[in-house]
Known about the structure:
This protein is mainly α and 97 residues long. It contains 3 helices and no strands.
Amino acid sequence: MKELFITGLTVILGAIVLYMGIYLFSHKNRSIFGLYHPQKNKGLQKVVICWAYILTILGSLTIISAFASLLLFQVIMLVLDAFSACILSFFMVAYSR
């Protein structure tokens, strides 16, 4: 039962990270939350596209790791997801000025 719970939570995390990546892809030429305007700032647009690729790949790999029976792969993906979300928030704060 515990393994099923962990698998479910990992799939949910992977779906959230994947959604974040898809959201950034869809907003590379539109305003993000009304705060960031990548269509006006080419540097921010490159950062958004780069993070969109990173988050989409990490989200997909996290969902795959949920169904793989390799605990180390799953732990690595969870740590990478946590660090990437933290680093993304710092990048976005840097561009909020």
